[in-house]
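Query structure, 125 tokens:
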């Protein structure tokens, strides 16, 4: 199995675990009270963004766009599931935080790649 398929599998497993955990009655509320709802969104979607950024085989600019689009879709799925559950609430602000996490993460990863001598060597070959 290629490394990119492994990254995709990890992304889907982690996303599914987050959805499952958040779908348990009262569990999301307990986690939000303890750690903060927006902090949880930032952490989860920054992690998803890091994985997603490594999946794509494309120039950096395209990987940035593809990652942000993928995070937007995952965030919409997450909020859509929350809207369907009677004990959860969907939030446009949560989705915006998901996108912020993606933008900050891909910006940091892109900057790291541009400053990394190893990456620059591979880019020239």
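Result returned for the query:
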């Amino acid at each position: 199995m290629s490394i990119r398929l492994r990254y995709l599998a990890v992304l889907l497993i982690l996303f599914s675990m987050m959805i499952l955990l958040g779908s348990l009655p009262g569990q999301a509320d307990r986690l939000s009270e303890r750690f903060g709802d927006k902090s949880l969104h930032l952490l989860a979607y920054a992690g998803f963004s890091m994985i997603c950024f490594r999946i794509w085989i494309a120039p950096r600019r395209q990987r940035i766009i593809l990652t942000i689009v993928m995070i937007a879709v995952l965030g919409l799925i997450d909020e859509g599931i929350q809207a369907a559950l009677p004990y959860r609430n969907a939030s446009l602000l949560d989705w915006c935080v998901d996108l912020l996490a993606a933008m900050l993460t891909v910006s940091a990863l892109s900057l790291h790649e541009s400053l990394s001598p190893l990456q620059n060597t591979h880019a020239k070959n």
